[in-house]
Amino acid sequence: MFATPIRAIAFDLDGTLVDSLPDLSRAANAVRAELGLPALADARVRSFVGDGAAMLMARTILDNPDASVDDSPLQTRARTAFQQHYLATLSTGTQLYPGVHDGLSALAERGLPLACVTNKPMVFTQPLLLVLGLSHYFSLVLGGDSLASKKPDPLPLVHTARQFGVAPAELLMVGDSSNDILAARAHGSPVLAVSYGYTESVAALQADGVIDSIAEIGSLLG
User: Fold this and answer.
1) According to CATH, where is 3.40.50.1000 located in the chain?
2) Closest CA to 204 of 173, 177, 175, 172
3) Can you tell me the distance from the alpha carbon of 100 to that of 84, in angstroms, rounded to the nearest whole number?
4) Fewest C-beta in 10 Å: which of 9, 31, 89, 109?
5) Mean pLDDT across the chain, nearest whole number?
6) What span, in angstroms and rounded, lies between the C-alpha atoms of 6 and 26?
7) pLDDT band with cut points at 50, 70 and 90 for residue 3
8) What pLDDT, in 10s, does the model give residues 101-160?
């Protein structure tokens, strides 16, 4: 399937390895409640996920997908409140998608270095990976605040490839959003999309392939 043998793999987190929407939605709506705003449906919050916590808060408190992050008192207060609420219920309702443990274990047994490359801030990413039993699979973890830029900028994949000593074409990206595909394309890396993530139209992402489970990846590598 791939023109060049895959020597390392980078995985997105939310919507790819874990369904964190219940906890994200709960925390986001707790912030809205503090601000005297009515709760949003989970589906609405889901449409705001993918560009990091600051952007999630900007979109959530304004209920606007086109909102931008700023340092206004309102957004600053919202970000602080969200961190408190989300850390308190980080894994209450979050679940691994089926096949994640089996898939990552099989890839690790092949000796492939694995990275978690997410736009989620590290303050949430590291404890979530730990509590869900995923930390040991990854020799590199990058959050949205780990580097100067996050996905869809290719910088996280540039850094990952350098850390693993592989060429862009040898690093496979696996994700569920346009950020993952755009980052991979800009880096010159192949990319797979999962069919079950937070993007409404997976076909529109135009990934190199679509998988129903992380456990399918091994068979695609040959």
Assistant:
1) 8-19+94-221
2) 177
3) 28
4) 109
5) 96
6) 38
7) confident
8) 999 999 999 999 999 999 999 999 999 999 999 999 999 999 999 999 999 999 999 999
- Terminal-residue alpha carbon distance, the chain: 8
In the chain, % helix, strand, coil (3-state, to 5) comes to 45, 15, 40
21-88 is a CATH 1.20.1640 domain = no
Where along the chain do the CATH 1.10.150 domains lie? 21-88
Let me know the angle formed at the C-alpha of 3 by 189 and 18, rounded to the nearest 5 degrees. 45
Distance CA 210, CA 80 (A): 37
Within 10 A of 43 (CB to CB), how many other CB atoms are there? 11
8-19+94-221 folds as Rossmann fold (3.40.50)
State pTM to two decimals: 0.95
Catalytic sites, residue numbers: 12
Residue (of 96, 97, 99) closest to 216 by Cα position: 99
Tokens 């800009």 found at: 186
- How much of the chain, in percent, has pLDDT values that exceed 90? 95
- For residue 198, what are its two tokens? 């937070």
- Nearest CA to 16 out of 84, 146, 103, 106 is that of 103
Residue 41 tokens read as: 């449906």
